[in-house]
């Protein structure tokens, strides 16, 4: 049994413009000690998927209308709220994208880390402070004894993200959901933070769900990847397979449009148009209005092709092995 | 123009911008943030110069000081035979026709109360390139088609467009006056990968068509590698290295450049390579470190680095490095190799 099994998750938003299928039948697993990347462009539903797992979707307008979220065999989608609160921050932790707005400005960072520890572990305040200090030290905050009493505004963006990680990991969760944890940070700080998550994952043997739009980050940190487009899974594979053999036309287009895969100064490959808003998702395959391979059959729901080794693609006209090999050969 | 063909289009020398820090009841000035502290570089005709660096290195301030959107505190910017910081307001306004900017945030850089036709057309009327608003609108329609939007959009408002479309509108506005020089301040950073590729292609096409020079300010090194002819690496308000694109990416000299390049994640899961992890954060520009500003984080720093400000060393005819390691040496020093020799891990 996988640590987390998301099965046919549907999270819809009920608005004046109608029922918006932001996440519409998404399935994936995460094992212990594994890093799974959830990638896609803005509006593909990656953050909504993450927030649905802990039922953090604002309700109304959002609602989980279908599917199961099994964590260690228990369904989080239907679990009573008082039980769910024991999972949140304890067995599953989240790191949000913006460390600047995710910390409470009127409490010291020490108070905020200790809050989770006191809530979930039967320890006294003194011990909680000791654990908080240890965590701050572990994530590389300079002078933890002094920093623990600082307020968020006294810290830099990179330090705040480290505090968020210290907080998320203080209860040694089994699953860490990291929603664009390094997007707001500079590359040298990003390298530090990703290294830190990897190290802590190794010692704690936790599963990591890494949500990102950065295919470079995916290539360097993930074991497996789920590519989302317009609220549905387009393709899922191991990281190596996905980059070696992109099979969905969307995945192939994304990889081809990266500047680091093109010759400097040459025209970049582009995917026509843009990701449609949920009010305008096309019928059938949701990529059909931008896909260079689309035909009439694409107005019906695409079938799944299983390429073996966990590599699956939902498409009427997937790339053949030769076609995708030609793509990855181009940048060599 | 043949007489000045060897002169760079834009020549920046010793440019400075300090922001004062006020404190206390009487708002006394207690110090200053040295956002840009004496930078020099050239931009040739039809050349794209990329300016890279992390947050707070002063790259955006540098771009705005060059255009005098904010007043620099010192230094010169020679452009079309004039020193921009010396220009009288009227002359500066005329000069703006030749130097334009594309902003990072496509949401806040377009006036929400103006139609697209007004946004693109008004500068044309102001600079006398269109006799009236109607003529300007007609020209705006042409420009919209040039940037890949439909001509009929001139009557619409900014909120009706997506981020990528708005960035195209911003680009149409910038090229409307047929400028020589455009500052692109993180112009594609807010866009998704697939849209970013579209906008980069557009910028490259327009460059060829109008013979434009770009100052491309960005933190994204894969974009830099793709679009630029030359790269200026900034650290804490100063230039660390200035080199042609190819040299910078194949044989970077400055330890900071090497660290920056090694930190960029590449979209290739098989590539396992060594990374230089820099300790700590970028220091505050209000109180920069002594000597070389990078010495607090530099893996190869020695005692000279904290005492003495490094000079700009020319390691090749068009390649400058501001680092003590290149005092009397031109060959690159590989940071990872050096650390391994000393038995330290990068």
Summarize the structure.
The complex is a heterodimer of chains A (332) and B (346). Chain A has 332 residues and is α/β, with parallel strands linked by helices.
What features would you describe in this structure?
- The complex is a heterodimer of chains A (332) and B (346).
- The model of chain A has no long low-confidence stretch (mean pLDDT 89).
- In chain A, α4 packs across α5 (125-138), α4 packs parallel to α7 (157-169) and α7 (157-169) packs parallel to α8.
- Chain A has 332 residues and is of the alpha/beta class.
- Chain A is globular, with a radius of gyration of 21 Å.
- Chain A has twelve helices and twelve strands.
- Chain B contains eleven helices and twelve strands.
- In chain B, 45% of the residues are buried.
- In chain B, α5 (163-175) runs parallel beside α6.
- Chain B is of the alpha/beta class and 346 residues long.
- The termini of chain B are far apart.
- Chain B has helices spanning 59-67, 89-95, 116-126, 133-146, 163-175, 193-210, 221-227, 245-250, 255-263, 303-307, 335-341, and strands at 10-23, 28-43, 48-52, 74-79, 82-83, 99-102, 181-185, 213-218, 230-235, 238-244, 312-316, 319-322.
- The longest helix of chain B is centred in the middle third of the chain and has 18 residues, at 193-210.
- In chain B, the strands form two sheets. Chain B has an eight-stranded mixed sheet, with helices on both faces. In chain B, strands 2-1-4-5 form a four-stranded antiparallel sheet.
- At the A-B interface, α7, α8, α9, α10 and α11 of A face α6, α7 and α9 of B.
